[in-house]
Amino acid sequence: MKTLAVYNVKGGVGKTAAAINLASLAAASGLPTILWDLDPQGGASWYLHADRAKSPAKSPDKAIWRGDKPLGPRILETPQANLHLIPADLDSRHLDTWLRKSEDDPQALKRLAQPLSEQYALLVLDCPPSLSYLADNIFAAADRVLVPVVPTHLSLRALMTLIDYFKSHDLPRSRLQPFWSMADRRRLLHRMLIEQPPKPMRDVCRAVIPYAAAVERMGEHRAPVESFDPTSAAAEAYRALWQELAPVLKQP
Questions:
Q1: 3-class state of residue 198 by DSSP
Q2: Over the stretch 173-196, which tens digit does the pLDDT of each residue have?
Q3: How many domains does one find in the chain?
Q4: Category of 14 on φ-ψ map: left (φ > 0), alpha (ψ -120 to 50) or beta
Q5: The pTM is what?
Q6: Per the CB 3.0–4.6 Å rule, which of 15, 17, 34, 187 could disulfide with 84?
Q7: Which domain holds residue 30?
Q8: CB 245: neighbour CB atoms within 10 A?
Q9: Sheet harboring 176-183: ordered strands across?
Q10: What H or E segment, with its residue span, contains residue 237?
Q11: What is the mean pLDDT of the chain?
């Protein structure tokens, strides 16, 4: 099983939308996929109708993260075939505390997710926007950390913070993969940064996710863009982004 984390230390950059759309495209491509919503806001869980599903287990608790209870009973089906969900709610805000108190080891999340490999080929992590002990666990578990970056200087600064963090903690820079998100080519700054990427974006994905009404309408449909507006520029951009990532995430 490969693990894709969609992460940014900054919020409001299109992280959850990317996680939902990429997980959906992965599932549609034939990969048994599970999305784990680690964000206490529970946006990905809401998009995938976790509130309408019958869950046999309580939301995240300390016993699960200590390994005293199995993770499996919390897995939910979604409206899309081949795509399952581990939902989040406000209890998820305690994850960092639970991890610190349970064991001083950034491999806890990776060990907890390992049994999922018996059923799934891809795990997508929708991550909260913070540099925390949970983030250390995410970085240790992920084969690829996908970083949405809005073409603005403040968003680039957030990326630099993450790059510096990786360097100071001896994490491989190659594991980070930035991409332009919420891009509006009508804005001069956006066009300039996209056309001439600064050094931190030297390995930026070719696909550019636009600032588009179709992405906003995900809330209306509670579904990935591909399911309700497949001809939109946003749907085409997410498909292109998945095609760039697929060769790495489909490797045995």
A1: coil
A2: 999 999 999 999 999 999 999 999
A3: 1
A4: left
A5: 0.94
A6: 34
A7: 2-249
A8: 21
A9: 76-77, 83-86, 33-37, 122-126, 2-6, 144-149, 176-183, 208-210
A10: helix 233-249
A11: 91
